[in-house]
Each structure stands twice: as C-alpha cells, then as structure tokens.
Amino acid sequence: MAMRLLTAALRTVRRSRRLATGLIVLGLMVLLAVFSPLIVKAIGGGTDPLEVAAYEKWLVPSPGHLLGTDQYGRDVLAMVVSAMSVSLQIGAIAGVISTVVGVIVAFVAGYKGGWVDGILSTFTGILLVIPTFPLLIALSAYAKDVSLFQVGVMISIFSWPFAAKTIRSQVLSLRSRPYVDLARVTKARDLEIIFTELLPNLLPFIGVGFASSALGAIFGLVGLEVIGLGPGGVIDLGQIIFSAISTGALTLGAWPMFVVPIGLLTLLFAALNMVNIGLEEVYNPRREESPVSDETVLEISGLEVKYATNRGDVTAVEGLDLAVRRGEILGIAGESGSGKSTLAVALLRLLKPPGRVTAGSALFHPKGRSPVDLLKVSGEELRVLRWSALSYLPQGSMSSLNPVMRIQDQFRDVILEHAPDRKPVLGELIPRLLGQVGLEPRVARMYPHELSGGMKQRVLMAICVALEPDLVIADEPTTALDVTIQRVILQSLADLRADFGVTLMVISHDMGVHAQLVDRVAVMYDGRLVEVGDVRQVFKDPRHDYTRELIESIPRVGRRAS
Ligand SMILES: Nc1ncnc2c1ncn2[C@@H]1O[C@H](COP(=O)(O)OP(=O)(O)OP(=O)(O)O)[C@@H](O)[C@H]1O
Questions:
Q1: Which domains does the chain possess?
Q2: pLDDT, tens digit (0-9, with 9 covering 90-100), for 64-94
Q3: What are the strands of the beta sheet with 296-309, ordered from one edge?
Q4: Quick check: pTM over 0.95?
Q5: Which spans are transmembrane here (predicted)?
Q6: What distance in angstroms lies between residue 307's CA and the mean position of ligand 1's atoms?
Q7: If both were cysteines, with which of 65, 72, 122, 193 could 52 make a disulfide (CB 3.0 to 4.6 Å apart)?
Q8: Which atom of ligand 1 is nearest to the CA of 527?
C-alpha cells in the first residue's frame, strides 16, 4: 500500500518540472527549518542572538551581523531563520489538519452520496462563504495568548472545506468509473476500494489541498502578527515585517529586516504555488475528456479464420464485424481459446499456417493515406504501414527486444527505417518517448537484460508509438506482470492515448484490465462476438450470460490474481 502510494507520488513528480522545482525549494526550506536551532546557535557564537539586548541596537549589516540588528539589539539573520521555521510549522500543522479532515469529509460525502453527501456538502458550503480572516481575528482575540499549535487548529477550522470541496468532486468522478463499479461487483469492502482504487488516484488533489491550506495558514499567521494577535513566545516573519514598518527600520538603514522576510515569504508562496500548479498540470482535467471521434479507423467485416488440423478445419474466428473508432481504447475480451489472438494476428497479417483467413475484410484508414484492406495489401505496402500506421505489442512481448542491442538503437532502427528525416532529433526524441511511459532517459543506454519485465514492456510501448501510428494492437499487455506493475502499464497506455491520440485495441482475458482502461469492450466467445458496448454499460448490465460470467470470475480487487 505505502509502496503503491510512493510510486504514484514519484510518477506524478516526474511529469512536471514545475512541481519538481517547487518541491526542491520547499525541501530546502524545510531543511533550514529543521536545522534552525543549530543555525541560530552558530550565528550567536557564545550568546543567544535572539535575546533582547544581545547586541547593540540598529547595527547595519556587517560581516558580524549579515542582516544587522533590530531595535532590541537582536540579530536579524537569526530572527529570520527562526521565523522561517515558525512559518513552516504553522503551514504543516494547518496543512495536515485541513487535509486529513478534508479528505475524510470528502470521502464520506463523495463515496456514500445521498443524504450524507447533502448534509456534508451544505455544511462545507456554508463554511466556504464565511469571511475567514475577520473570524480568525475574533477567535484569536478571544482566545488570547494562544500557542502556535492552537493558531494552527483555528486556521484549519476555516481551511479544511477547500480541501474537502476539491477532493469530493474527484471522488464523485472516480466512483462512477467502471473499475470502481467492478470492485463493487466483486464485493470488495468499501475501505479496500478507497485504499486500493481511489486514494492513489486522488494523491494529486490531496497534494493541492495540502499546499493551499499550508499557504493560507502561513499568510493567515502573518496577518495575525501584523495586527498583534499572533501566538506568544515565537518570532514569525509577519512580526519582523510589522516591527520593521512600525519602527521605521527602512529609514534607519535596516532594510534587510523588511526585504528579507518579504523575499522569503514570496519564495515560499512561489514554491507552494508551483507545487499546486504542477499537480494540477500533471493531473490536467483535460485528460479526462474523451478523445474518441466518430471517425472509423478500422472496419472489420465478416472476418473468418480457420486452422487446418488433422481432424478437419477449426474455425477460430467466425463472421466477425467490428468498427474501431479513431482515438478510442477498444477492449477485446474473452476466455482463453475464444479467438482473440487469432483476430489480432490475422489483422496484422502475422497468421501462420495452418491458420488462414477464409473470408472477410479489414478496411484500415491511416491518416493522410488512402484506405487499405489489411487482409489484402501487398507485403511491401504492409512493411510501410507497420510501426508508422499500425503497431503491434505482442503477447509476452518482453522477449521481443533484441538482447544484444542497447534500447536507443532499437528505437533508432524502427524510427529511421520509416522516418529517416528524424535522425537529427533522435537524441531528444528517444528520452521524450521514454519519459512518456515513465522511464528515465538513462534507460536508452541500457541493454534489455538490465531492465525489469515491466520496464521492457514500457520500452516496447514507447517504440510502438514512436512514429505516432493510427492504431496499436496490444495483446495481453499486462499478463505475467506483478499487480503493481500492471497498474503502471495500464496508466501508461491511457497516457499514450491522451498524449498521442493513438487508437488502441487491447486484447485481454482479464475483465479487470478492460474495467480500468478501455472505452468500449467487445466480448468474444468461441470465435464470435457476443457483445460490444460502452464498458460502463457492459459492466452494469451485461446482455450476454457469458459476459456476466466473465465479470463475476474476476479475482477480488486488492487480491493478487493467480
Ligand atoms: N496453430 C493452431 N492450430 C490449430 N488450432 C489453433 C491454432 N492456434 C489457435 N487455434 C485454435 O483457435 C482457437 C482460438 O485461439 P486463440 O489463440 O486465438 O484464442 P485466444 O482467445 O487468443 O486464447 P489465448 O488467450 O489463450 O491466446 C482455439 O480454439 C485454438 O485451439
């Protein structure tokens, strides 16, 4: 569970430079905060630099006091370092409380729905419209001599609804996804669904909730300090700014007292905002929009495939009609032996004797080229189409990488064979393609044996889309992989569709794969198509008994598939 969340978090960070920068700056600030007592001690040497009258008043910046001293003779640098830690503490206190409360409320409201959602949403809504700062002032004035933790709790009272609102709408959208329905069908417990299906997908939103609450709290505290209602016994950035203004520090040459805390607050603001925007960027809601068009990319009519055996012909695919729409992920489901792989190899013209296509057509519409019947094109025409218009991710494809070639050379071979003009950009293109499937650029210099099964599968997926083909046919893309890696592969496939607009035909016996990934599912039984439809619809209300059996035979979510 923890590993799964960590992998999800790392994947998220890798996808946005802004997010990574924000987190690095925040990390440095946290380090400064953690070591602030030591730094303050080092600044003071033998004396406590935060003590009143430790030094002379209003010393201008000098090597002994890099930022000078204040009106009480305290070292401003030591004050700023200590105040930085206070700001981060208040941010962390309010951030954690608001996020935890917000997440719990959002899950209960979004997941339970109905009247529970009604009551919680109304309550959240009321808190959202109340003007926060005046209430905070009133609370602080009433509470008097509050501690830093108490201020954090007070601020959280007003900031958790923001987190709850953002997360609730995501819970609502996620819980209508087929894979959550699937988890319900397979009778997984609510908590199991929340932890295995919803939480990992909501991490970015939880991060946004945390960063916004922390930011609000830091500035809330500055506001309280400026009006003299801050917690006792601590020096905060707001307090330093306030005394710089009230004592006319700027005219006394003590400008660092004003400029440095403002600069640090700005930096903190920028870093938290970068985290915020970065998270939204990575989890751009536009990805949720369906890229499926009405255009047909492949039209299969009356396909029939037979295998000659010594007991006569075996019909593996019979009278199959199916249209694949541009931009969709179409799942082909069915138990072993139902004819799924035969369908794929027939379309790709990789069917070997004793197999042969005995009837039908497969009209393929590659962009910018005239339509072709895949079952009739010449070998040369097919060579041109492969990779550039039609890619294949074969079953057990991990062994299809050449073991003695570096990954970059395998990309190079495919790309240059079809698009020699891309030679100058290969150095930039290969790492970008690897990045699309969540792999580091250094993978390009590795050999297949240095990669895990899941990494090899992702390399192949990246090669498949390198030339931005119209259609990728993936046969059992997750079989033989660990459950966690399966999830990564499925996410990468969904990302490739979102980023490249590629159409995917995903063949899998595992209905769980279809539930998580595809838009439409076509169910095969004994060589025939028995049901085709929107995946949600098929899961909710399967028309064919066989489909119902397939759905019910799925192992429970969270339990390792055997
Ligand atoms: N080389 C072959 N010779 C004879 N019959 C074959 C051959 N290959 C496949 N078949 C038969 O064709 C039918 C469909 O097989 P196919 O491999 O396409 O099914 P599948 O749904 O892809 O199964 P799996 O998921 O196990 O690959 C089966 O009845 C199978 O026995």
A1: 2-56+66-282 (1.10.3720.10), 296-552 (3.40.50.300)
A2: 888 888 888 899 999 999 999 998 999 999 9
A3: 312-325, 296-309, 355-364, 372-373
A4: no
A5: 20-40, 86-111, 118-142, 202-224
A6: 9
A7: 72
A8: 14
